[in-house]
Amino acid sequence: MSNLIVNVNNPYDVIYEQGCLDRAGSIIADKLVFSRAFILTDRNVGPIYLERLEQSFKNEGKEVFSYKMDCGDTSKNLESYGFIIDKMVEIGIRKDDLIVALGGGVVGDMAGFISSSYMRGLNLIQIPTSFLAQIDSSIGGKTGLNTAFCKNVIGTISQPKLVLVDVDLIKTLPRKEVINGMGEAIKYAVLMGGESLGIIEKGLGGGNIERFIQLCGQYKSSLVEADEYDRGKRRLLNLGHTIGHAIETASDYSISHGLAVAKGIKFMMDVALKKGSIKETDYNRLISIFNKYGIDTSIDYDANELYKFVLLDKKGREGKISYIEILALGYCRISTIELESFKEMLDETLSNKN
Ligand SMILES: NC(=O)c1ccc[n+]([C@@H]2O[C@H](COP(=O)([O-])OP(=O)(O)OC[C@H]3O[C@@H](n4cnc5c(N)ncnc54)[C@H](O)[C@@H]3O)[C@@H](O)[C@H]2O)c1
After folding, report:
1. 42 CB less than 6 Å from ligand 1?
2. Where does 92-240 have alpha helices with state H?
3. pTM here?
Protein backbone atom coordinates (compact mmCIF):
# COMPACT_ATOMS: atom_id res chain seq x y z
CA MET A 1 0.00 0.00 0.00
CA SER A 2 1.20 3.51 -0.66
CA ASN A 3 -0.35 6.84 -0.21
CA LEU A 4 -0.21 10.10 -2.13
CA ILE A 5 -1.56 13.34 -0.69
CA VAL A 6 -2.88 15.86 -3.19
CA ASN A 7 -2.23 19.17 -1.46
CA VAL A 8 -4.91 21.40 -2.93
CA ASN A 9 -7.24 23.76 -1.03
CA ASN A 10 -8.98 20.74 0.44
CA PRO A 11 -6.23 18.09 0.47
CA TYR A 12 -7.11 14.46 -0.14
CA ASP A 13 -5.43 11.06 -0.28
CA VAL A 14 -4.90 8.78 -3.23
CA ILE A 15 -4.49 5.28 -1.82
CA TYR A 16 -2.76 2.67 -3.97
CA GLU A 17 -3.53 -0.78 -2.59
CA GLN A 18 -4.04 -4.06 -4.39
CA GLY A 19 -7.38 -5.56 -3.37
CA CYS A 20 -8.61 -2.40 -1.60
CA LEU A 21 -12.02 -2.63 -3.31
CA ASP A 22 -13.15 -5.08 -0.63
CA ARG A 23 -12.04 -2.70 2.13
CA ALA A 24 -13.38 0.46 0.47
CA GLY A 25 -16.28 0.87 2.92
CA SER A 26 -14.01 0.77 5.97
CA ILE A 27 -11.26 2.96 4.41
CA ILE A 28 -13.87 5.59 3.53
CA ALA A 29 -15.66 5.32 6.89
CA ASP A 30 -12.33 6.01 8.65
CA LYS A 31 -12.04 9.30 6.79
CA LEU A 32 -15.58 10.63 6.41
CA VAL A 33 -18.78 10.79 8.40
CA PHE A 34 -21.71 9.45 6.36
CA SER A 35 -24.46 6.90 6.66
CA ARG A 36 -25.46 6.29 3.04
CA ALA A 37 -23.56 5.88 -0.20
CA PHE A 38 -24.79 6.19 -3.78
CA ILE A 39 -22.56 4.23 -6.17
CA LEU A 40 -22.53 5.28 -9.80
CA THR A 41 -21.12 2.64 -12.14
CA ASP A 42 -21.77 1.50 -15.69
CA ARG A 43 -23.31 -1.54 -17.34
CA ASN A 44 -19.92 -3.23 -17.93
CA VAL A 45 -18.22 -2.53 -14.61
CA GLY A 46 -21.30 -2.94 -12.40
CA PRO A 47 -21.85 -6.66 -13.03
CA ILE A 48 -18.16 -7.37 -12.25
CA TYR A 49 -17.43 -5.24 -9.16
CA LEU A 50 -20.56 -3.59 -7.75
CA GLU A 51 -21.55 -6.39 -5.38
CA ARG A 52 -18.13 -6.42 -3.67
CA LEU A 53 -18.17 -2.67 -3.22
CA GLU A 54 -21.73 -2.70 -1.89
CA GLN A 55 -20.79 -5.44 0.56
CA SER A 56 -17.85 -3.42 1.86
CA PHE A 57 -20.28 -0.60 2.79
CA LYS A 58 -22.79 -2.99 4.32
CA ASN A 59 -20.00 -4.45 6.49
CA GLU A 60 -19.68 -0.95 7.99
CA GLY A 61 -23.43 -0.72 8.60
CA LYS A 62 -23.93 1.80 5.80
CA GLU A 63 -26.93 1.95 3.52
CA VAL A 64 -26.04 1.59 -0.18
CA PHE A 65 -27.79 2.56 -3.39
CA SER A 66 -26.49 2.22 -6.90
CA TYR A 67 -27.14 2.97 -10.52
CA LYS A 68 -25.54 1.50 -13.66
CA MET A 69 -25.36 4.10 -16.40
CA ASP A 70 -24.92 3.29 -20.10
CA CYS A 71 -21.29 2.86 -21.13
CA GLY A 72 -19.07 5.16 -23.08
CA ASP A 73 -18.60 8.79 -23.98
CA THR A 74 -21.93 8.98 -25.84
CA SER A 75 -23.60 8.65 -22.41
CA LYS A 76 -21.56 11.43 -20.79
CA ASN A 77 -24.20 14.03 -21.59
CA LEU A 78 -26.98 16.15 -20.11
CA GLU A 79 -29.65 13.60 -20.91
CA SER A 80 -27.99 10.87 -18.81
CA TYR A 81 -27.14 13.45 -16.17
CA GLY A 82 -30.81 14.45 -15.84
CA PHE A 83 -31.86 10.83 -15.72
CA ILE A 84 -29.39 9.95 -12.94
CA ILE A 85 -30.33 13.05 -10.95
CA ASP A 86 -34.01 12.00 -11.17
CA LYS A 87 -33.03 8.56 -9.89
CA MET A 88 -31.14 10.12 -6.98
CA VAL A 89 -34.09 12.31 -6.09
CA GLU A 90 -36.40 9.30 -6.31
CA ILE A 91 -34.13 7.32 -3.96
CA GLY A 92 -33.96 10.33 -1.65
CA ILE A 93 -30.18 10.98 -1.79
CA ARG A 94 -29.37 13.86 0.55
CA LYS A 95 -26.57 16.38 0.83
CA ASP A 96 -24.85 14.43 3.59
CA ASP A 97 -24.72 11.21 1.52
CA LEU A 98 -21.70 10.16 -0.53
CA ILE A 99 -21.42 9.59 -4.24
CA VAL A 100 -18.91 6.93 -5.26
CA ALA A 101 -17.64 6.62 -8.84
CA LEU A 102 -16.89 2.98 -9.68
CA GLY A 103 -15.75 2.93 -13.28
CA GLY A 104 -13.62 4.49 -15.96
CA GLY A 105 -13.27 8.14 -16.87
CA VAL A 106 -16.86 8.39 -18.11
CA VAL A 107 -18.37 7.33 -14.79
CA GLY A 108 -15.74 9.43 -12.97
CA ASP A 109 -16.55 12.59 -14.94
CA MET A 110 -20.30 12.06 -14.57
CA ALA A 111 -20.13 11.31 -10.82
CA GLY A 112 -17.79 14.30 -10.42
CA PHE A 113 -20.20 16.64 -12.16
CA ILE A 114 -23.10 15.29 -10.12
CA SER A 115 -21.08 15.72 -6.91
CA SER A 116 -20.44 19.36 -7.70
CA SER A 117 -24.03 20.15 -8.68
CA TYR A 118 -26.50 17.88 -6.86
CA MET A 119 -28.00 19.85 -3.97
CA ARG A 120 -25.02 22.20 -4.37
CA GLY A 121 -22.47 19.58 -3.48
CA LEU A 122 -22.02 15.98 -2.36
CA ASN A 123 -18.81 14.33 -1.16
CA LEU A 124 -17.20 12.30 -3.95
CA ILE A 125 -15.02 9.17 -3.81
CA GLN A 126 -13.28 7.98 -6.96
CA ILE A 127 -12.65 4.25 -7.45
CA PRO A 128 -11.16 4.13 -10.96
CA THR A 129 -11.45 0.83 -12.83
CA SER A 130 -9.86 1.60 -16.20
CA PHE A 131 -6.16 2.08 -16.86
CA LEU A 132 -6.87 5.60 -18.12
CA ALA A 133 -8.84 6.51 -15.00
CA GLN A 134 -6.19 5.05 -12.67
CA ILE A 135 -3.34 7.03 -14.22
CA ASP A 136 -5.19 10.22 -14.94
CA SER A 137 -8.86 11.10 -14.74
CA SER A 138 -9.59 10.08 -11.12
CA ILE A 139 -7.16 12.68 -9.74
CA GLY A 140 -7.46 16.44 -10.10
CA GLY A 141 -11.17 17.14 -9.85
CA LYS A 142 -12.01 17.92 -13.47
CA THR A 143 -15.53 16.88 -14.38
CA GLY A 144 -17.04 17.02 -17.83
CA LEU A 145 -20.10 16.35 -19.94
CA ASN A 146 -20.22 16.42 -23.74
CA THR A 147 -22.73 17.99 -26.09
CA ALA A 148 -23.25 16.84 -29.67
CA PHE A 149 -20.69 19.37 -30.91
CA CYS A 150 -18.25 19.76 -28.09
CA LYS A 151 -16.30 17.47 -25.81
CA ASN A 152 -16.35 18.23 -22.05
CA VAL A 153 -17.86 21.67 -22.65
CA ILE A 154 -19.99 21.39 -19.50
CA GLY A 155 -17.97 20.87 -16.36
CA THR A 156 -16.47 22.00 -13.10
CA ILE A 157 -13.30 21.60 -11.10
CA SER A 158 -14.32 19.95 -7.90
CA GLN A 159 -11.94 17.64 -6.04
CA PRO A 160 -12.87 14.22 -4.66
CA LYS A 161 -12.50 13.50 -0.96
CA LEU A 162 -10.54 10.31 -1.62
CA VAL A 163 -9.27 8.22 -4.53
CA LEU A 164 -8.85 4.45 -4.11
CA VAL A 165 -6.68 2.80 -6.75
CA ASP A 166 -6.87 -1.01 -6.85
CA VAL A 167 -4.66 -2.14 -9.71
CA ASP A 168 -6.33 -5.59 -9.66
CA LEU A 169 -9.46 -4.01 -11.13
CA ILE A 170 -7.86 -3.40 -14.51
CA LYS A 171 -7.34 -7.15 -14.98
CA THR A 172 -10.84 -7.39 -16.48
CA LEU A 173 -10.34 -4.44 -18.80
CA PRO A 174 -10.78 -5.49 -22.46
CA ARG A 175 -7.56 -5.23 -24.49
CA LYS A 176 -9.08 -2.45 -26.60
CA GLU A 177 -9.49 -0.35 -23.44
CA VAL A 178 -5.92 -1.01 -22.29
CA ILE A 179 -4.78 0.35 -25.66
CA ASN A 180 -7.13 3.31 -25.19
CA GLY A 181 -5.47 4.02 -21.83
CA MET A 182 -2.07 3.81 -23.50
CA GLY A 183 -2.81 7.10 -25.28
CA GLU A 184 -2.85 8.98 -21.94
CA ALA A 185 -0.03 6.76 -20.63
CA ILE A 186 2.21 7.78 -23.53
CA LYS A 187 1.25 11.39 -22.87
CA TYR A 188 2.66 11.08 -19.33
CA ALA A 189 5.81 9.36 -20.62
CA VAL A 190 6.36 12.19 -23.13
CA LEU A 191 5.78 14.85 -20.46
CA MET A 192 7.84 13.20 -17.71
CA GLY A 193 10.55 11.35 -19.64
CA GLY A 194 12.94 9.47 -17.34
CA GLU A 195 11.69 6.40 -15.50
CA SER A 196 8.14 6.50 -16.87
CA LEU A 197 9.40 6.64 -20.46
CA GLY A 198 11.72 3.73 -19.71
CA ILE A 199 8.81 1.67 -18.34
CA ILE A 200 6.66 2.38 -21.39
CA GLU A 201 9.52 1.37 -23.67
CA LYS A 202 10.18 -1.80 -21.70
CA GLY A 203 6.57 -2.84 -21.22
CA LEU A 204 4.03 -2.79 -18.41
CA GLY A 205 4.47 -6.40 -17.29
CA GLY A 206 5.32 -7.50 -13.77
CA GLY A 207 5.14 -4.77 -11.16
CA ASN A 208 5.85 -2.13 -13.83
CA ILE A 209 2.22 -1.20 -14.26
CA GLU A 210 1.78 -0.35 -10.56
CA ARG A 211 4.93 1.74 -10.54
CA PHE A 212 3.82 3.50 -13.72
CA ILE A 213 0.34 4.27 -12.35
CA GLN A 214 1.91 5.80 -9.23
CA LEU A 215 4.43 7.86 -11.22
CA CYS A 216 1.56 9.32 -13.26
CA GLY A 217 -0.39 10.08 -10.08
CA GLN A 218 2.61 11.85 -8.53
CA TYR A 219 3.21 13.91 -11.66
CA LYS A 220 -0.44 14.83 -12.08
CA SER A 221 -0.87 15.78 -8.45
CA SER A 222 2.23 18.01 -8.59
CA LEU A 223 0.66 19.95 -11.47
CA VAL A 224 -2.76 20.06 -9.81
CA GLU A 225 -1.19 21.36 -6.58
CA ALA A 226 0.65 24.08 -8.51
CA ASP A 227 -2.44 25.06 -10.51
CA GLU A 228 -5.66 23.61 -9.14
CA TYR A 229 -7.93 25.64 -11.43
CA ASP A 230 -6.09 24.96 -14.69
CA ARG A 231 -4.94 28.47 -15.49
CA GLY A 232 -1.23 27.74 -15.98
CA LYS A 233 1.12 24.81 -15.57
CA ARG A 234 -1.63 22.17 -15.33
CA ARG A 235 -2.36 22.80 -19.00
CA LEU A 236 0.68 20.69 -19.85
CA LEU A 237 -1.68 17.77 -19.33
CA ASN A 238 -3.50 18.91 -22.47
CA LEU A 239 -0.68 17.51 -24.61
CA GLY A 240 -2.29 16.06 -27.74
CA HIS A 241 -5.77 17.08 -26.57
CA THR A 242 -6.59 19.98 -28.94
CA ILE A 243 -6.35 17.71 -31.97
CA GLY A 244 -7.43 14.71 -29.87
CA HIS A 245 -10.72 16.28 -28.80
CA ALA A 246 -11.40 17.44 -32.38
CA ILE A 247 -10.86 13.88 -33.67
CA GLU A 248 -12.99 12.38 -30.91
CA THR A 249 -15.87 14.76 -31.63
CA ALA A 250 -15.53 14.48 -35.43
CA SER A 251 -15.75 10.69 -35.08
CA ASP A 252 -18.90 11.02 -32.98
CA TYR A 253 -16.91 9.34 -30.17
CA SER A 254 -16.32 6.17 -32.19
CA ILE A 255 -12.60 6.93 -31.74
CA SER A 256 -11.93 6.61 -28.02
CA HIS A 257 -10.44 9.43 -25.94
CA GLY A 258 -7.07 7.76 -25.39
CA LEU A 259 -6.65 6.76 -29.00
CA ALA A 260 -7.58 10.27 -30.13
CA VAL A 261 -5.01 11.71 -27.70
CA ALA A 262 -2.36 9.36 -29.14
CA LYS A 263 -3.17 10.68 -32.62
CA GLY A 264 -2.94 14.23 -31.22
CA ILE A 265 0.50 13.52 -29.70
CA LYS A 266 1.78 12.04 -32.96
CA PHE A 267 0.46 15.16 -34.74
CA MET A 268 2.41 17.40 -32.33
CA MET A 269 5.54 15.28 -32.86
CA ASP A 270 5.15 15.73 -36.64
CA VAL A 271 4.86 19.49 -36.12
CA ALA A 272 7.93 19.51 -33.86
CA LEU A 273 9.98 17.41 -36.29
CA LYS A 274 9.05 19.68 -39.19
CA LYS A 275 9.99 22.77 -37.18
CA GLY A 276 13.25 21.14 -36.18
CA SER A 277 12.43 21.56 -32.48
CA ILE A 278 12.91 17.86 -31.62
CA LYS A 279 15.66 15.44 -32.55
CA GLU A 280 14.89 12.72 -35.06
CA THR A 281 16.04 10.13 -32.50
CA ASP A 282 13.30 11.30 -30.09
CA TYR A 283 10.76 11.18 -32.89
CA ASN A 284 11.77 7.64 -33.80
CA ARG A 285 11.68 6.53 -30.15
CA LEU A 286 8.09 7.68 -29.92
CA ILE A 287 7.12 6.01 -33.19
CA SER A 288 8.61 2.75 -31.83
CA ILE A 289 6.45 3.10 -28.71
CA PHE A 290 3.28 3.56 -30.78
CA ASN A 291 4.26 0.51 -32.85
CA LYS A 292 5.08 -1.57 -29.78
CA TYR A 293 1.52 -1.12 -28.48
CA GLY A 294 -0.11 -1.36 -31.91
CA ILE A 295 -1.52 2.17 -31.71
CA ASP A 296 -2.85 3.52 -34.97
CA THR A 297 -1.86 7.20 -35.06
CA SER A 298 -3.22 7.94 -38.53
CA ILE A 299 -5.69 10.81 -38.87
CA ASP A 300 -8.49 10.26 -41.38
CA TYR A 301 -9.93 13.76 -41.20
CA ASP A 302 -8.88 16.75 -43.21
CA ALA A 303 -7.81 20.07 -41.74
CA ASN A 304 -11.17 21.77 -42.38
CA GLU A 305 -13.14 19.03 -40.64
CA LEU A 306 -10.96 19.20 -37.54
CA TYR A 307 -10.67 22.99 -37.49
CA LYS A 308 -14.45 23.29 -37.04
CA PHE A 309 -14.07 21.54 -33.68
CA VAL A 310 -10.81 23.28 -32.76
CA LEU A 311 -12.77 26.56 -32.90
CA LEU A 312 -15.05 25.22 -30.15
CA ASP A 313 -12.11 24.20 -27.94
CA LYS A 314 -12.03 25.55 -24.38
CA LYS A 315 -8.38 26.46 -24.88
CA GLY A 316 -9.27 29.14 -27.47
CA ARG A 317 -9.28 32.80 -26.42
CA GLU A 318 -9.39 36.12 -28.32
CA GLY A 319 -8.43 34.67 -31.67
CA LYS A 320 -5.65 32.56 -30.14
CA ILE A 321 -5.33 29.01 -28.91
CA SER A 322 -2.93 27.35 -26.55
CA TYR A 323 -1.35 24.00 -27.31
CA ILE A 324 1.47 21.91 -25.91
CA GLU A 325 4.68 21.95 -27.85
CA ILE A 326 7.08 19.00 -27.64
CA LEU A 327 10.74 20.01 -27.46
CA ALA A 328 12.13 16.63 -26.39
CA LEU A 329 10.84 13.47 -24.75
CA GLY A 330 10.50 14.70 -21.17
CA TYR A 331 10.41 18.40 -22.09
CA CYS A 332 7.22 20.12 -23.28
CA ARG A 333 5.99 23.69 -22.99
CA ILE A 334 2.72 25.60 -23.23
CA SER A 335 2.54 27.80 -26.35
CA THR A 336 -0.11 30.13 -27.67
CA ILE A 337 -0.65 30.90 -31.34
CA GLU A 338 -3.13 32.73 -33.55
CA LEU A 339 -6.00 30.48 -34.62
CA GLU A 340 -5.11 31.18 -38.24
CA SER A 341 -1.58 29.89 -37.68
CA PHE A 342 -3.01 26.82 -35.96
CA LYS A 343 -5.16 26.23 -39.05
CA GLU A 344 -2.03 26.53 -41.24
CA MET A 345 -0.28 24.01 -38.97
CA LEU A 346 -3.23 21.64 -39.48
CA ASP A 347 -3.21 22.18 -43.26
CA GLU A 348 0.53 21.60 -43.58
CA THR A 349 0.81 18.63 -41.23
CA LEU A 350 -2.24 16.79 -42.51
CA SER A 351 -1.40 17.34 -46.14
CA ASN A 352 1.90 15.44 -45.59
CA LYS A 353 -0.32 12.77 -44.13
CA ASN A 354 0.53 10.17 -41.58
N1 LIG B 1 -11.52 14.33 -15.59
C2 LIG B 1 -10.34 14.21 -16.13
O3 LIG B 1 -9.34 14.75 -15.67
C4 LIG B 1 -10.20 13.35 -17.36
C5 LIG B 1 -8.92 13.04 -17.87
C6 LIG B 1 -8.82 12.19 -18.97
C7 LIG B 1 -9.96 11.66 -19.55
N8 LIG B 1 -11.19 12.00 -19.04
C9 LIG B 1 -12.41 11.42 -19.62
O10 LIG B 1 -12.38 10.03 -19.37
C11 LIG B 1 -13.15 9.37 -20.37
C12 LIG B 1 -12.38 8.19 -20.88
O13 LIG B 1 -12.15 7.31 -19.79
P14 LIG B 1 -12.04 5.73 -20.02
O15 LIG B 1 -11.09 5.46 -21.11
O16 LIG B 1 -11.86 5.13 -18.70
O17 LIG B 1 -13.46 5.40 -20.64
P18 LIG B 1 -14.74 4.62 -20.07
O19 LIG B 1 -15.10 5.09 -18.74
O20 LIG B 1 -15.74 4.71 -21.16
O21 LIG B 1 -14.22 3.13 -19.91
C22 LIG B 1 -13.86 2.43 -21.08
C23 LIG B 1 -14.65 1.13 -21.22
O24 LIG B 1 -14.09 0.17 -20.35
C25 LIG B 1 -15.09 -0.38 -19.49
N26 LIG B 1 -14.43 -0.66 -18.23
C27 LIG B 1 -13.89 0.23 -17.36
N28 LIG B 1 -13.27 -0.41 -16.37
C29 LIG B 1 -13.42 -1.73 -16.60
C30 LIG B 1 -12.97 -2.92 -15.93
N31 LIG B 1 -12.21 -2.86 -14.86
N32 LIG B 1 -13.34 -4.11 -16.44
C33 LIG B 1 -14.07 -4.19 -17.59
N34 LIG B 1 -14.50 -3.12 -18.26
C35 LIG B 1 -14.17 -1.90 -17.78
C36 LIG B 1 -16.17 0.67 -19.43
O37 LIG B 1 -17.41 0.10 -19.13
C38 LIG B 1 -16.12 1.24 -20.85
O39 LIG B 1 -16.86 0.42 -21.72
C40 LIG B 1 -13.45 10.39 -21.43
O41 LIG B 1 -14.77 10.81 -21.30
C42 LIG B 1 -12.50 11.53 -21.11
O43 LIG B 1 -12.99 12.77 -21.52
C44 LIG B 1 -11.32 12.79 -17.96
Report:
1. yes
2. 105-117, 131-132, 175-192, 194-202, 208-226
3. 0.94
